[in-house]
Amino acid sequence: MLEVNRQALDNKSDWFGWLLFIVVFAYFWIGTGPFPSPNDTLILSTYGDSSNQINQLIVIAMTMTVLAALFMNPAGRLILRAYWLPAAILVWLLLIIPLSDSPDSALRRTVYAALVCICSSAILLLPRDRNQFTTLIGYCLLFALGLSMLGVLLRPDLAIHQSTDASEQALAGDWRGHFGHKNTAAAAAAFAFFFALYLRKNKKLWVGNGLLLLSGIFILNAGGKTSLAIVPAVLLIAWLFERLGGLRLPFVLFSVSAFNIVVVSSATSQPVRDFIGALGIDPTFTDRASIWQLALSAIAERPFWGYGFQSFWQTDALANGNSSAATWAVTAANAHNGYLDLMLSGGFPLLILAVIWLVILPSQHASKALRLNNDLTLTRLFIRIWLFALFLATLESPFFANSGPIWFTILIAIFGLQLQAQARLVSEPTPQDITALQVR
């Protein structure tokens, strides 16, 4: 066992660490423009035209600051070790940019995705210890959900979907908080629910109970049926995962693959649709089947390199193409399936690389962390978030969604599981102590 030590943080560096944590967390969970207008022309424009240069500059500045903090931290090398697979994904996305219909947009989004990945990975090393991490994460989440709740009470026209909105009038009455859409709000509340359980286990009862209440209320009122159904399922699946030993990876691969195949097959197979309908479930999954049909057709045309990173949906090429007259699905914001969107962005090579990074490696890291009994409550938190993301991706597109809290939180869990497999941060050092990082 190798021990890497760093001197106890003085008041100035400690202050810088938690302030940077709050800034990065607030940017992704609250953003620079909370409660966006549902009739904003930026929201209604095609994806390729909706770039926000201010957000890009903010992320660049945050990334530079986070990298500086990372390189000053001896434990930063643990994060650097985790970059090899994301780097391979980045290389592939850069290689296929010339084949994209919108190479400039694909390049911009690829670089932006890399910056988001860096910010998300390093944020776990900013708190001094576990106690500071639980305190910071608890109050940040409580503020974020409290802000959404305040919006519901004071500005329901912005915080609740309305029948007068420029799009998706059928969602009227569903809560969206400051997140802009009820699906994002529901998934964010689900993550907050898992964090609340973690905080309660770490004796942060006041914050944990408040967060548990707010997240529960929001999940129920957001109308996000996917998140509402997945949360209890994930609690059970995570419980099984912890007890399966060497069968953990096969269990996850089979569960996610089987569910994904059945769901997507509803778009192409009548027997599957009949089977799902017999279970009392809408076989179109609220008309996602039309979107999946379009996505599968597009993938069949470019199975190896796809259409460029985030360069298929809400583009002028799609809106004005031959498919636009055949199906309303051309107006969709994404495939409502993270795995299909991976293939649309980079073909089967991107899907394979992403499955290794997001499914196989986290399972191995979680198994090692569980075997070492390394802070079980923190490992369990990351496992729940990770599993939720894998199943959420069968009906939504959370992967590489660079704005908002979803992808950011998923990345925290992915990198967190790797850190749990490699190191342990002492719980609460005294001012005379050092923060000891034990690298296995």
From TrEMBL:
GO terms for molecular function: ligase activity. Residues 212-354 form the O-antigen ligase-related domain. It is a multi-pass membrane protein. The chain crosses the membrane at residues 15-33, 53-71, 83-100, 106-126, 133-154, 183-199, 211-241, 342-361, 381-400, 406-426. One of its GO terms (cellular component) is membrane. It is found in: Membrane. Keywords: Ligase, Membrane, Transmembrane, Transmembrane helix. InterPro entries: O-antigen_ligase-rel_domated (IPR007016), WaaL-like (IPR051533). The keyword Hydrolase does not apply. It comes from the Bacteria. This is O-antigen ligase. It comes from Devosia psychrophila.
